[in-house]
Design a protein that fits this description.
By secondary structure, the chain is α/β, with parallel strands linked by helices. The chain is built from 9 helices and 7 strands; from the N terminus they run αβαββααβαβααββαα. Helix 4 packs across helix 9. The site of iron/sulfur cluster (SF4) has 14 residues, from helix 5.
């Protein structure tokens, strides 16, 4: 038994070494490669101090995924469709991979699918999705098909997984679920190579910027994504509120509009105002 365990450990170490080497050849599947000089999120504009690292348990490192490397986004979507890497894979109705163009300059990232997304297999549908579409159109002059929209986790986290037909059954993803699913998002980013990521709400902001600060403290500024997706060109991360938060509290609309105007200016000029 001891010998088998030792052999398994050797195999795993060899596999992880192989993944590290492969990271130089995009696209690849595997643990995200941290940008060497970014620590942990580098603020590039405005007033807020750079977020501090979150506790390890809240933001665990992304583990290596399946060794099979997808040739393109469609192959990656197929992997997600068949994924059972965490418990959510056994209870979802549909994996929610993402929607939009693979040539998007901006990628919007939410927390995870809810009831309607699970049923439809598409992110940000329902009232939150309609509001996001409205923001895209009125502030950015873009349609859903002009951008890309995805979530940190691709399957619906439920309080009671035995009852996917009940409303109000949503819960935030656990750190383990985020850790299991996060590599899919970075792989999507490697295929799309956007200029900018907009995180919608606290959970994706904390995860992608490796911070434990809430969205109200982090928004209003742009940061460099602390994972190297395109060598030598950091992707900008612009955090803002989740549309559901705006539906609950319309007073957040003004700040959201300001954030979206920053996105628009960056897409038009390549600079953060
Ligand atoms: S949430 Fe992500 S890691 Fe978990 S089963 Fe779904 S696709 Fe796989």
């Amino acid at each position: 038994m001891k010998r088998e365990l030792a052999e398994a450990a050797k195999d795993l170490a060899a596999y992880l070494r192989n993944q590290d080497e492969n990271l130089a050849e995009p696209p690849c599947m595997g643990a995200a490669k941290a940008a060497p000089v970014l620590s942990p999120a580098v603020k590039t504009t405005k007033k807020a101090a750079a977020p501090q690292p979150a506790a390890e348990k809240e933001n665990p490192p992304a583990p290596a995924m399946t060794p099979k490397r997808p040739a393109d986004m469609d192959a990656l979507a197929e992997q997600v469709k068949n994924c059972r890497s965490c418990g959510l894979g056994g209870t979802r109705l549909n994996a929610v991979f993402g929607v939009g163009t693979y040539k998007a300059k901006v990628v919007f990232v939410g927390e995870g699918p809810g009831f309607q997304e699970d049923h439809k297999g598409e992110p940000f549908v329902g009232r939150s999705g309609q509001l996001l579409d409205k923001i895209l159109e009125t502030v950015l002059g873009l349609k859903r098909s002009d951008v890309y929209i995805a979530n940190i986790v691709k399957c619906h986290p439920m309080k009671n997984p035995a009852d996917p037909e009940s409303h109000g059954n949503d819960r935030p993803p656990t750190p383990d679920e985020i850790s299991a699913c996060r590599p899919y998002l970075d792989e999507q980013l490697r295929f799309i190579k956007p200029a900018c990521i907009v995180t919608l709400g606290s959970v994706p902001t904390k995860v992608l910027l490796k911070t434990d600060k809430g969205i109200s403290l982090v928004r209003g500024s742009a940061y460099d994504y602390p994972v190297e997706i395109v060598p030598g060109r950091p992707i900008k991360v612009i955090p803002t509120y989740h549309p559901a938060a705006l539906l609950r509290n319309p007073n957040l609309k003004r700040d959201t509009w300001e954030d979206m105007k920053m996105v628009k200016a960056f897409l038009e000029t390549g600079k953060i105002p």
